[in-house]
Automatic annotation (TrEMBL), chains A, B:
<keyword id="KW-0602">Photosynthesis</keyword>
<keyword id="KW-0067">ATP-binding</keyword>
<comment type="similarity">
    <text>Belongs to the phosphoribulokinase family.</text>
</comment>
<dbReference type="GO" id="GO:0019253">
    <property type="term" value="P:reductive pentose-phosphate cycle"/>
</dbReference>
<keyword id="KW-0934">Plastid</keyword>
<dbReference type="InterPro" id="IPR006083">
    <property type="entry name" value="PRK/URK"/>
</dbReference>
<dbReference type="Pfam" id="PF00485">
    <property type="entry name" value="PRK"/>
</dbReference>
<feature type="domain" description="Phosphoribulokinase/uridine kinase">
    <location>
        <begin position="57"/>
        <end position="255"/>
    </location>
</feature>
<dbReference type="GO" id="GO:0008974">
    <property type="term" value="F:phosphoribulokinase activity"/>
</dbReference>
<keyword id="KW-0547">Nucleotide-binding</keyword>
<dbReference type="InterPro" id="IPR027417">
    <property type="entry name" value="P-loop_NTPase"/>
</dbReference>
<keyword id="KW-0113">Calvin cycle</keyword>
<dbReference type="GO" id="GO:0005524">
    <property type="term" value="F:ATP binding"/>
</dbReference>
<keyword id="KW-1015">Disulfide bond</keyword>
<comment type="pathway">
    <text>Carbohydrate biosynthesis; Calvin cycle.</text>
</comment>
<protein>
    <recommendedName>
        <fullName>Phosphoribulokinase</fullName>
        <ecNumber>2.7.1.19</ecNumber>
    </recommendedName>
</protein>
<dbReference type="GO" id="GO:0042803">
    <property type="term" value="F:protein homodimerization activity"/>
</dbReference>
Length: 410, 410
């Protein structure tokens, strides 16, 4: 059996042809690509036939400036190698390609460019500014093992650049503002994640970036947050109810000063009953536990560390929550925390700690953002393995399973 | 080597002779008893020589009406058999004798009888009403393996009855108002326990007993509590600072109504560094953990159950605290809780649960009082074994060790 589909070019709002460079980089993948001539004809394009494959699709929704890129770097590291822009393609490509993963940014599906949004008075958060039909068709194609020519939104010019070829990877991440907005796209996702940064933390991060690094004034930062807030609340935030996994980043509760954001409380909400995803637990599955591990086995300076684990409901779904509040003093001691967590989907004792040590320079490595993102990476690896193993038993080639399993040391 | 001591009768304030019955019951123990003739002479009495033995001495301090007798029944059950008054002795004896344990009540060392206390205007809580010299001498004698003739305070007549012979047991409990008051007696204790019942709970228990069962008025109960409070605060309560183990019984925190006593929060405070006593811990030694075990594995009706474990300080000493707030719905499910507790000093998996089920009809069997008292019983058994094993290596007969170890199934 092989997958083969055609996608009409009229769904695409961006200029629709492969550049010389772009095709150059695709030569090795000719079996996935239609010819440049066909592409130029403009009738049917973004079309290819692949060998028998099955792409696992993960959606990651978050507002901009919420640490998605660090999260993706952690995920792709766990899943195999470094994620980099496709070689030889548009220098402004938003795509990252790793050994087994491809991350596409949904900004590439902007239906209106910056100028047009300005004219019509809509923000990029407004669904009207995005092409969900094309997004759906292309994600569906990739999931079925079909390469596509995806538009590229140039964040510098604010316009659409020539498209780039995306081959179906083992694991496809679609990250951006709206991966969970369209029900058709949601139905394609094997796992959906929502990165939920509280207003206090978002504000603190924006101040740090835009004021300290870009010299913006506090007033202008406040104004830009305010301008986006209404659309964010209307179109972005409600998506979290559909997510399988939610990472909430909140101010600490370890410091009496309410809303202190120099220390973070990070909650991993894991819905029950998600296929191929068994929630992580602390000490005892199904119990409610608050754990302060500080003592002889873990160095903790003020204000210490507190973990929480327990059942909860998220909107109307049952969920398990694992929470970490505080900062690690010494990352190598993390093994002590790791040893009390179960269902981590590690391949060997201490893998979480090793991953954290490997990327100790990433932002959030000493707090719950790094820890819980790393854990999610391991869970996704297992999910991928299980999906492909399942598909394999339904006739897919074992080769892909081996490729996927090879990613992780055993 | 054998122990042999003489204790002057003049230390004894009670009539000092063995009754016919009393001696009758002691016939089997003649090696420990002086003759009746000698006893009647009144010069040296309470004297005997024993074989090489070493009695472990445990002090249990608590106010009256604080559940000491239920505690003692649980302890003696764990330590071997049922504790009963010495056969054939004074029907008003306060002593309980089990296979390996003897419990003596320190009320027997009242220096003033009820009449005299009334005359002098002192309560039984006042040290002046108690003979600490005799208490010390006799506990010291028993600890050294020497039998004594202990006074008997008759709680019905309020006077001293003829003394009873107490042979040195494997484990001697001295329970009452003042086991930790006199520093000489404290120095004899291998373990000291303070049963600390909060005022709210003490009041609720007294109401239940004296009002419901004895028909006393609420006003008279309040008046009697008030009358004792000053002496209690001055002479009884301060002893807890010297205890190795403290059981605090407090109102629940699971119900918003402050001071609710229909559900109890029971805290086991275990000081660090007590010889032969390793504190029990929940999940992870040295951490601070709050655990709500309710869920699929433990039935919990309102208001549920919450455990707490963590390091603390008690007066100026470092301690570990294990706390249980709430009630069990089903005692047989206790095995689930037991499986997450460590350093329980059990001999086999599930021994705590088995002990609790065995005495399901005892007061407090469905809450933390029963659970933590049972655990203390197991810890005392281990302490006894370790002390005797230690002494054994210093020349004591192995026979006693075997007697002690035989108490518990292996």
């Amino acid at each position: 059996m092989s997958f083969c589909s055609l996608y009409p070019a009229l769904l695409v709002t961006s200029p629709w042809s492969c550049s010389e460079n772009h095709l150059g980089s695709c030569r090795k993948q000719l079996m996935f690509c239609v010819s440049r001539r066909k592409a130029r004809r403009g009738a049917w394009t973004g079309v290819s036939c692949s060998a028998e494959t099955r792409t696992v699709v993960i959606g990651l929704a978050a507002d901009s400036g919420c640490g998605k890129s660090t999260f993706m770097r952690r995920l792709t590291s766990v899943l195999g190698g470094v994620a980099e822009p496709p070689r030889g393609c548009n220098a402004y490509s938003n795509t990252l390609v790793g050994d087994a993963t491809t991350v596409i940014c949904l900004d590439d599906y902007h239906a209106l460019d910056r100028e047009e949004r300005k004219e019509k008075g809509v923000t990029a958060l407004d669904p009207k500014a995005n092409n969900f039909d094309l997004m759906y068709e292309q994600v569906r194609a990739l999931k079925s093992g079909v390469a596509v020519e995806k538009p590229v939104y140039n964040h510098v010019t604010g316009r659409l650049d020539p498209p780039e070829l995306i081959r179906p990877p083992n694991i496809l991440f679609i990250e951006g503002l709206h991966p969970l907005f369209d029900p058709r796209i949601r139905s394609l996702l094997d796992l959906s994640i929502y990165l939920d940064i509280s207003n206090e933390v978002k504000f603190a991060w924006k101040i740090q970036r835009d004021m300290a690094e870009r010299g913006e004034s506090l007033e202008s930062i406040k104004a830009s947050i305010k301008a986006r807030k209404s659309d964010f609340d209307m179109y972005i935030d409600p998506q979290k109810q559909y997510a399988d996994v939610i990472i909430e980043v909140l101010p600490t509760r370890l410091i009496p000063d309410k809303g202190a954001t120099e220390v973070l409380r990070v909650r991993l909400v894991m819905k029950e009953g998600v296929k191929h995803f068994t929630p992580v637990y602390l000490f005892d599955e199904g119990s409610t536990i608050s754990w302060t591990p500080c003592g002889g086995k873990l160095s903790c300076s003020y204000p210490g560390i507190r973990f929480f684990y327990g059942p909860d409901t998220y909107f109307c779904d049952e969920a398990s929550v694992l929470e970490m509040d505080g900062k690690f003093d010494r990352l190598d001691e993390l093994i002590y925390v790791e040893s009390h967590l179960s269902n981590l989907s590690t391949k060997y004792y201490g893998e979480v700690t090793q991953q954290m040590l490997k990327h100790a320079d990433f932002p959030g490595s000493n707090d719950g953002t790094g820890l819980l993102q790393t854990i999610i990476g391991l869970k996704i690896r297992q999910l991928c393995e299980q999906i492909i193993a399942g598909d394999s038993s339904h006739g897919l080639k074992r080769k892909q399973l081996r490729r996927c399993l090879r990613l992780s040391p055993v």
